[in-house]
Write a structure and sequence with these properties.
By secondary structure, the chain is mainly α. The strands form six sheets. The protein has a two-stranded antiparallel ribbon with strand order 1-2. It has a two-stranded antiparallel sheet with strand order 3-4. Strands 5-6 form a two-stranded antiparallel ribbon. α4 packs parallel to α7, α36 runs antiparallel to α37 and α52 crosses α53. The longest helix has 27 residues. The C terminus is likely disordered.
């Protein structure tokens, strides 16, 4: 909680105009205290403000200028005033506040702080004061006033009064009573007001009038009841019966809002009783609720009553678990009667109540160590559940299945044998072809398998597949259920039941020989696969691992891995599950909870892991061999299994395995490189990688588990491979070793100890890096940077140039890694501020180079060195790198450094090299949106003219980029400043931006008035398609952001999100959406659905050569030319822009006589891009057309030199304004027919004929 001084400081420097008066009064009070030599203590402030309040209330009249501010300050000060003072001044303060609180037309800003003062006063009162009657000026009288305000029609006043009541009731004065002294008064008043409104609403319904006019008052009264229930440790005991009756009658009204409010109140009452003090009221409350049992056919009142009962016994089970458990059969009997109701809602409520009883009312101790009495209770419950499957309850069978599933989940292994009859009944129902609830029955049987184990379930529902018994059905349908639900059972059962089944089915497949496979043989193959798909479930924490998983079983699995490729996935999952399930149990901290551990203790799990560890060596050898024989796309599961067994392999065995694998790697490296596993006819996916790549994968996997003594050979291997540039894939894998080691504790220690060695390795291999390995090299350096000691900071400048160059990599992931590494190195030097960087150790630096102190400014100096590069590529990369680190460190960088950077980039804008300027434009954009206004304003007079030079350049989207930067400038610095600094010739662009902005604002205002707000504005958070803030700053377009950028927004303080979010329903024309359907969610969208075009005659499609394309589906791509299509948000490529230029609706079209026409029709989307047509450009185009006739080059712009993007000034920002040759149709254009001549098709006139 903030101190008084902190709160007063905020008032002394107000942000809002409305707080100015409060500041003046506070200043006056402080000056008065100073004149009287009184210390500015809470007592001093309180006394002065009380006197001032007395003056502001003359003859009961309120001074509208003075009183609100005084009461506001009094609300701030009162909580800090001494309690004895508040007790002694209670009468005086209440007398002063009473006129304000009783005034009908008083404003909410005056009443709310008055309530706050009253709250602080009431919290300070002792039990003696609370005994005074209501007719005197006493705390009880003040509470009565608060109760009146708690149902006020004004939301903020009502909320403040309810909060005050809650706080007062939660903090009773010291006394032996459970309830607050005012709890009875609050309960009676709230009950009275609730009863009055409820009676009025009931009367309206009886007279068949609308009761909607009473709904707000009823909701307010219910809110007050809820407040008191949540605050006073449950409802006061003597009022509880009347409250229950009243609430249930309101729930009966059928208004779902009222019913939910009633539920909330009961929830609050039960929550208030979930502590030892208040729990004494619980038995009486449950007794009252049980006595209020409605009629069995009351469809309105019964469901809420059942729900309340369910919640009550949930709380009771937490407070008195043994007593509640003993009542379980009676409760089950009472509620299960409702399952035969004809009402679906009642059956659903009853089933959910029974599910709640099973989930909450059975103590863990009953499952772990039940007494004979406990078992008898469970048997009674099982008998009642069995009765639910009788014909009497047939209508409720689907709900019954949910209840049975909950019973299996609750009883776990104790369900055997008492629930076997239920399993048999459900299995017989499921086996009936005409039974409609197969899916629900499958779920019940699955839960039975999970709880009791497959052995028990199969004892009453045998599969009957190997030797079918006459008269008994085969149950192959159970195999998928066994696959999905088997867990924590006996592995021996799989060996005795399913391995013979698999062998029998596989033998039938073998008996078929080479003959064509019949449907029957395919079924046998499927049964084999389904059988082995159950194995992972049996291996998930088995109870007999050390007995069942013996040498013979392990050998069988090894043979399967070698011989049955289709079964590899299931066998690998099973082997991995054996390890991971036991590791999960061994890592649980709580030793006692056997239910959580599924009957496997921590000691058992550790013994299981030790046993598996003894077999790990042989299993790893098999897995390594299988891995080397498997195609790369199928290796994932095998590698995960290898990983699991490496984690439990004993250290000695692990070292031996590593030595064998590393010697294999060295051997394979020394072998002459051949076309291993490659064939000319094979696709890349079908090619086997080289042995060295395969073995390197295994080395990387093993690395995190190796002991420290193996790290020497490991790094030697990495050093050997990293400097080899003849196998890029192998080099990539070697670089992956360092990030992999950084994930383990021993690996981190190794990276720290061998840091110098690794630094030298990275630096010495710089010249040998292959292009595919660059991203992994950057990832390796990133993993290494945190472990670099402050004495080796020279490593940063040593690798910096390489990282900077990678900012211009073609590979997007490599660029992202380079940016992340730049930022990481910046933070490293910033954290090591003042530590020396030994420049003499940096390659290409003189041996006598002086050391420099580490700082973020020094880091910028290092990166800026690239600006003096000899190639435009290096300069461009350096500018891109500076842009990224400027955005990251803009708040910590010295102002003079920032200023110098901006000035330097301003000069680079005058460069003639497009590659350099492209990077500078990104830098300028980041400056415009993120640097302080006061820093940027002095640079605008030179920056804007330099920018506008590139507004006439159409290649590489320069025009669009400059326009966007100008838009951001206008939004940030204002139209007048930008316009003033813009050259006269280019001011029409600035005018266009202003008009576009105004037009867009008008559209939005109109949409708001029409209630059709834009989706992005209605959502609380703007949906972001960028991965980082930097990407958003650099690549975002300003189209959606119309409001002005403030400095606060730029520096990460986002605008306050608008409340609420739009939701749209996608509805079929023929059928309305069923909102109760589970699939309805798929038809509800937060995005406004677009209007579909009406079906009509579509134009024939043509390819690039003008030939008709027939036979394609309607959903096919309209554009035959899909090469180089840019992704959303990326700049268009050359081919894409060219095709767009020819196909867009803005492109030129030839009319009659070969004249070039431009459409001036505007759609909705075109308004933002409207721009005045440049008469000069139009005349230039006309001249070129008339000169060259059919010889105008396709895509030529107004200047005839480059393909135009943006229309040459015609409607800025749109692509493709180029002229089209008259003699030949352009790429992707539609065929056009000439004018008709007496029913015949005539030839169009040539441009020369008029």
């Amino acid at each position: 909680m903030a101190t008084l001084e902190e709160k007063l400081d905020k008032i002394r420097s107000p942000n809002l105009q409305s707080q100015q008066q409060t500041q003046v009064i506070l200043k006056a009070v402080e000056e008065t205290l100073k004149e009287q030599n009184t210390q500015p203590t809470p007592t001093g402030y309180f006394a002065a403000l009380l006197a001032l309040l007395n003056q502001s209330l003359t003859n009961g009249q309120i001074n509208n200028e003075l009183t609100p501010s005084v009461v506001y300050l009094l609300d701030v000060v009162t909580p800090y005033a001494p309690q004895p003072l508040l007790r002694s001044k209670f009468t005086q303060i209440l007398t002063l506040l009473a006129p304000i609180l009783l005034l009908e037309d008083a404003d909410a800003p005056l009443i709310r702080p008055s309530i706050g003062c009253l709250e602080s006063l009431l919290l300070a009162q002792d039990s003696t004061a609370w005994k005074l009657p209501t007719n005197e000026i006493s705390p009880r009288r003040a509470v009565a006033g608060l109760l009146n305000l708690a149902i006020d029609h004004r939301p903020k006043v009502r909320k403040r009064a309810q909060d005050a009541l809650r706080k007062v009731l939660k903090n009773p004065p010291p006394s032996p009573s459970v309830d607050h002294p005012a709890a009875d008064l609050c309960a009676e008043t709230a009950m009275r007001s609730l009863a009055e409104v409820a009676n009025k609403a009931a009367l309206s319904r009886k007279q068949k009038k609308s009761s909607a006019e009473h709904d707000p008052a009823l909701i307010h009264a219910l809110q007050l009841v809820k407040t008191i229930a949540s605050a006073s440790g449950g409802w006061p005991s003597k009022n509880i019966e009347a409250l229950c009756e009243l609430l249930l009658s309101i729930a009966k009204s059928g208004n779902e809002h009222m019913t939910m409010a009633v539920f909330d109140i009961f929830e609050m009452i039960f929550e208030g009783m979930a502590d030892e003090v208040a729990s004494t009221k619980l038995p009486r409350l449950l007794e009252i609720i049980s006595e209020m049992r409605p009629s069995s056919n009351d469809t309105q009142l019964l469901p809420p009553w059942i729900a309340i009962l369910s919640r009550g016994y949930d709380v009771s089970a937490q407070m008195e678990p043994e007593d509640t458990y003993q009542k379980l059969p009676d409760l089950f009997t009472m509620v299960s009667e409702f399952m035969e109701s004809s009402s679906h809602n009642i059956r659903i409520s009853a089933s959910e109540c029974l599910i709640s009883f099973m989930a909450n009312c059975i103590p863990d101790q009953v499952i772990v160590e039940p007494s004979i009495y406990d078992e008898k209770i469970l048997e009674k419950v099982a008998k009642i559940a069995e009765d639910l499957l009788s014909v009497k309850y047939q209508a409720a069978w689907m709900e019954t299945f949910n209840v049975l599933g909950a019973i299996f989940d609750a009883l776990r292994w104790r369900a055997d044998p008492m629930m076997l009859n239920i399993v048999r009944t459900v299995g017989e129902l499921r086996g009936n072809e005409s039974f409609m609830g197969k899916k629900e029955a499958d779920e019940v049987l699955g839960k039975a398998i999970r709880a009791m184990g497959p052995e028990s379930v199969l004892s009453v529902l045998p599969l009957n597949l190997i030797k079918p018994v006459k008269g008994q059905p085969g149950r192959a349908w159970m195999l998928p259920i066994l696959r999905d639900y088997t867990t924590n059972t006996s592995l021996q059962h799989f060996k005795t039941e399913f391995i013979p089944l698999s062998e029998a089915m596989f033998q039938r497949v073998l008996d078929n020989g080479e003959a064509a496979k019949t449907m029957e043989i395919k079924i046998y193959e499927t049964l084999v696969h389904q059988t082995w798909s159950i194995l992972p479930g049996y291996c998930d924490l088995p109870l007999d691992l050390t007995v069942a998983f013996d040498q013979s079983f392990a050998e069988m699995l090894a043979n399967l891995l070698y011989q049955q490729v289709d079964l590899r996935l299931d066998v690998c999952r099973a082997l991995k599950s054996l390890v991971e399930s036991n590791q999960a149990v061994a890592s649980i901290e709580d030793d006692d909870n056997l239910i959580l551990r599924s009957r496997v203790s921590k000691d058992d799990a550790q013994k299981n892991l030790a046993y598996l560890g003894s077999l790990a060596g042989n299993l790893l050898a098999v897995l390594f061999n299988v891995y080397s024989q498997t195609l790369p796309q199928s290796r994932g599961p095998i590698l995960q299994t290898i990983n699991a067994y490496l984690s439990i392999t004993p250290e000695k065995e692990l070292i031996e395995t590593f030595d064998r694998v590393s010697s294999m790697l060295v051997t394979s490296l020394n072998e002459p490189k051949g076309e291993e596993g490659k064939s000319k006819g094979q696709k890349p996916k079908e090619q086997m990688p080289s042995t060295s790549q395969t073995v390197m994968d295994l080395v990387i996997t093993m690395s995190v588990y190796l002991p420290r003594q193996s790290f020497g050979p490991l790094f030697n291997l990495a050093a050997l491979i990293i400097v080899r540039d003849d196998d890029p894939q192998l080099q990539k894998k070697a670089y992956k070793l360092i990030p992999r080691l950084a994930d383990s504790e021993t690996g981190k220690v190794a990276l720290q100890k061998r840091n110098a060695e690794l630094q030298n390795l990275i630096l010495s291999s710089a010249e040998k890096v292959s292009v595919p390995a660059r991203r992994d090299r950057l990832a390796a350096i990133t993993a290494l940077i945190p472990f670099i000691p402050d004495t080796s900071l020279h490593f940063v400048p040593s690798v910096l140039s390489e990282v900077v160059i990678c900012c211009k990599e073609n590979n997007e992931k490599a660029r992202t890694s380079a940016f992340e590494l730049l930022v990481l190195m910046g933070h490293k030097l910033e954290d090591a501020k003042g530590k020396p960087i030994d420049n003499s150790k940096v390659p290409h630096m003189p041996k006598d180079a002086a050391p420099v102190a580490s700082s973020i400014e020094e880091y910028f100096t290092m990166v800026s060195a690239g600006l003096a590069g000899s190639t435009p590529h290096m300069i461009s990369a350096s500018i891109t790198a500076l842009t990224r680190i400027l955005y990251e460190f803009r708040e910590t960088l010295a102002q003079d450094v920032l200023s110098d950077l901006v000035q330097t980039m301003d000069l680079f804008l005058t460069s003639n090299n497009r590659e350099i300027v492209k990077s500078v434009l990104g830098f300028v954009k980041v400056c415009v949106i993120s640097l302080p206004t006061e820093l940027m304003l002095p640079r605008l007079p030179s920056m804007i003219p330099n920018l506008m030079v590139w507004a006439h350049e159409h290649k590489g989207h320069f025009r669009a980029k400059v326009k966007h930067i100008m838009e951001r400038m206008v939004r940030r610095f204002g139209f007048d400043i930008v316009n003033r600094n813009c050259p006269e010739a280019d001011r029409k662009l600035i005018t266009n931006i202003r008009k576009t902005k105004e037009r867009s604002k008008k559209k939005k205002d109109a949409a708001k008035e029409g209630g059709d707000e834009d989706e992005s504005q209605q959502n609380g958070k703007r949906r972001n398609r960028f991965e980082s803030e930097y990407d958003e700053a650099l690549y975002s377009s300003g189209e959606s952001d119309v409001s002005d950028d403030s400095d606060a927004e730029v520096f990460g303080k986002s605008r306050k999100a608008q409340k609420g979010g739009a939701t749209y329903i996608l509805e079929d024309d023929n059928e309305p959406l069923d909102l109760l359907d589970r699939k309805a969610l798929a038809s509800i969208s937060s995005t406004k659905p677009g209007k579909l075009r009406k079906a009509g005659r579509t134009k024939a499609k043509t390819d690039l050569d003008g030939k008709l394309i027939l036979g394609e589906e309607d959903g096919g791509d309209d554009d035959a030319m899909v090469i180089d299509t840019p992704r959303h948000g990326e700049p268009e490529s050359g081919v894409g822009a060219y095709v767009a230029a020819l196909k867009s609706k803005d492109a030129g079209r030839r009319g009659r006589g070969g004249r070039l026409k431009f459409s001036n029709k505007r759609g909705k989307d075109d308004e933002d891009e409207e721009m005045d047509v440049d008469e000069k450009d139009v005349s230039t185009i006309k001249t070129q057309i008339s000169r060259s006739g059919a010889g105008v080059r396709r895509g030529a712009g107004p200047r005839g030199g480059r393909p135009t993007r943006g229309g040459g000034g015609m409607r800025g920002g749109r692509s493709g304004r180029g002229g089209i040759a008259a003699g030949r149709r352009g790429l992707g254009q539609e065929k056009r027919h000439g004018p008709a001549f007496a029913g015949k098709v005539g030839k169009p006139k040539s441009p020369g004929r008029r």
